[in-house]
Design a protein that fits this description.
By secondary structure, this protein is α+β, with helices and mostly antiparallel strands. The chain is built from 25 helices and 13 strands. The model is unreliable at 59-69, 96-109 and 143-147 (pLDDT under 50). Belongs to the protein kinase superfamily. ADCK protein kinase family.
């Protein structure tokens, strides 16, 4: 019975420690980790207590609680509580679970699975870093100064991305389109990256359809080509005919397991980009990590075909409401999901191989290019939703009508109204050689506009614009690269959505050059802006009835506030006369201020926790000096553990403080 009583007493002590320690530490770790912490602390302290104090004493045969309710027992229970709290904090420090705004965990996973995933990712990351070091990426990034060194760096980066394979090759291919960011040497090397992908087999295609529609191909399509129209790393495209309507369609399949592979490789790519940025000032100035982050976000959307279908529908509605006649494929939502998208089949040819079709249909190349550009500008500068990847392979000539057809909506950009206006100033300012207008546009396109030194930036932009004066043509990518270099030198960062738009403009310029060599994009942008402003100003005179209805609606919304103005002015004057006007500013209304105070307070709490553990540990060391039996060893152990944790917290805070000082400099 004494043994059962002792077990029961330990169980009660464990429950008390579980609730008390949880309340004291306020930890957000999982229930299993809390139970594990209590079990470890109870087992360890009980064994040490028995081994150092109870064993061989008079209390060993007389039970625990009945005879050992003394200072030693209280120290034992306190040590149990302290060790459980130490374990809580240990799990909290090394727990990678994300917390939301309320401080509750988001997306909690099994600790065992997390450990396995972490080990796999670290192994892959070491492999990637090893390839980069072997190819000399870090060395060339650190010392690249001359043109020859830049060529060496470009080759090293290309070799690294090619040898890493998968997502890394696709990232390099995307970088090769960023002519506004990278020099021609890098573009030339990165354009050599090729990703050879085996087409899906017929069995795989049938399996994908069966898994996504719970039916075979014969129940949905009366015909589906076994030879793909195109095959890429993410999806594969087949021509088919719908069974119910007999309409020709294009079926795009997501490759099996691509989501899992992409998710793992994207996390490795982000770690790789962070590592390179920490090793190279060149990569940091370029915003290499931000490039990888933007690529990661875009790719996550690209592998969800529901998003692509929605993008296609949005752009189709924008084109339908606009004045530019281009073709956007129809989406068959009832046959589409996150892994398969079914869309209208466009009979025609890409502009890259459409020379014969241009001649056969008698299409004016300049007008065709102008239509494509005006459609893009209408999407970008008016609606704010635009096709973000207008490379020649996505621009088709419709065979029956000769219209512009725009395909592949996996990448669609979105600009806020302020950014639309800034982009308009930016493009028109370049055409008019107006540095002040260009800087006005940049101020609305960057995140940290308050850091702009207008006088110096206007001088730098003026130097670039002077170089293109009295020149018939100048490559758009070269001009954009020069302006982007100035932006980076001033420490400015474009909004991610603006980066997408500017990259699309450079890509579009290359496509327009394929369609109509010598096409001047900036001159056409000015003409489009003039026409748009004229149509906006003259619209009320063309449709007076609609204008009248619009004015009535606006007045109906404004009248209640207008009626309150005299009363509010009277109240304001009275307060001014009585001296009761108080200006109040809430520093927490600004998100940056709120985050600063939150971080400062969190670090202060960590500092207090570290100091508290240090004081408690020193006290335990002092108490152990007055105990002359083996139990003093246990007290010393608990005290040293507390001092160890105290040291970890203080060192962690010191490193954060040093990094903050360096960042400030």
């Amino acid at each position: 019975m004494d043994f059962i009583s002792a077990i029961l007493q330990l169980l009660i002590a464990s429950v008390l420690v579980f609730f008390i320690s949880g309340r004291l530490i306020g930890s957000q770790i999982s229930l299993m980790k809390r139970i594990l912490s209590v079990l470890i602390s109870v087992s360890l302290t009980t064994f040490v207590f028995w081994y150092t104090y109870l064993r061989g004493s008079d209390y060993y045969d007389q039970g625990i609680v009945s005879n050992v309710v003394n200072i030693t027992t209280l120290i034992w229970l306190g040590s149990m509580l302290l060790i459980s709290m130490l374990l809580y904090l240990f799990f909290e420090l090394f727990d990678s679970i994300e917390l939301n705004e309320n401080g509750t965990p988001v997306g909690r996973r099994s600790y065992f699975k997390t450990l396995i995933t972490y080990w796999k990712r670290q192994k892959r990351l070491r492999e990637v870093v090893g390839i980069a070091v072997t190819n000399g990426v870090t060395r060339t990034m650190k010392y690249a100064r001359a043109r020859e060194d830049e060529r060496e760096l470009a080759k090293a980066l290309r070799d690294t991305l090619e040898q890493c394979g998968g997502v890394f090759i696709k990232f390099g291919q995307v970088l090769s389109t960023r002519k506004e960011l990278l020099s021609p040497i890098f573009i030339e090397e990165l354009e050599k990256l090729q990703q050879h992908v085996k087409p899906l087999t017929e069995q795989q295609v049938d399996q994908i359809i069966a898994e996504n529609f719970n039916a075979g191909t014969h129940q949905i399509f009366s015909y589906i080509s076994k030879t793909p129209l195109a095959s890429a790393s993410i999806g594969q495209v087949h021509k088919a005919v719908l069974k119910e309507t007999n309409e020709p369609v294009v079926v795009k399949f997501l490759r099996p397991d691509v989501k899992n592979i992409m998710q793992d490789d994207l996390s490795i790519l982000m770690e790789f980009a962070r590592w390179i940025s920490s090793k190279s000032q060149w990569a940091e100035n370029l915003g290499f990590y931000d490039l990888a982050k933007g690529f990661s976000m875009a790719l996550k959307e690209e592998i969800d075909f529901i998003i692509e279908a929605r993008n296609m529908e949005q752009v189709a509605k924008i084109v339908e409401r606009g004045s530019i006649d281009v073709k956007v494929p129809k989406v068959y939502r009832e046959c589409s999901n996150s892994n398969v998208v079914v869309m209208e089949y466009i009979k025609g040819k890409s502009v890259t191989v459409g020379n014969a079709l241009f001649t056969e249909l008698g299409i004016d190349r300049h007008q065709f290019a102008q239509t494509l550009l005006y459609s893009f500008l209408e999407q970008t500068l008016i609606s704010g939703i635009f096709h973000a990847d207008p490379h020649p392979g996505n621009i088709y000539i419709e065979e029956t009508t000769g219209r512009v057809a725009i395909l592949d909506y996996g990448a669609v950009g979105r600009l806020a109204e302020l950014q639309q206006e800034g982009l308009k100033y930016f493009l028109v300012g370049i055409h008019q050689n107006d540095a002040a207008l260009v800087v006005d546009g940049i101020a609305q396109l960057v995140e940290n506009a308050e850091q702009i030194n207008r006088h110096e930036m206007e001088q730098a932009i003026s130097q670039i614009l002077l170089k293109i004066n009295y020149v018939s043509t100048i490559p758009t990518d070269e001009l954009m690269y020069s302006i982007f270099s100035v932006v980076r030198e001033f420490g400015l960062h474009f909004y991610p959505s603006v980066n997408v738009a500017l990259r699309a403009i450079v890509t579009l310029d290359g496509t327009l050059s394929v369609i109509c060599p010598g096409f001047r994009i900036f001159s056409e942008v000015k003409d489009f802006s003039n026409d748009y402003l004229k149509s906006s100003l003259l619209k009320p005179f063309k449709h007076p009835g609609e204008t009248k209805d619009l004015i009535e609606e606006e007045l109906a919304l404004l009248l209640p506030n207008i009626r309150k103005i005299p009363r509010r002015l009277d109240q304001l004057f009275r307060k001014v006369e009585s001296g009761k006007i108080i200006l109040h500013h809430d520093i927490f209304s600004d998100k940056a201020n709120s985050m600063f105070v939150t971080q400062l307070f969190s670090r202060f709490v960590l500092l207090m926790v570290g100091i508290t553990f240090g004081i408690i540990s020193v006290a335990l060391l002092a108490i152990s000096q007055f105990i002359h039996n083996a139990y003093a060893i246990y007290l010393n152990t608990a005290a040293y553990l507390g001092l160890f944790l105290c040291a970890i917290l203080l060192v962690r805070l010191s490193i954060q403080a040093i990094r903050d000082m360096k960042r400030t400099k």
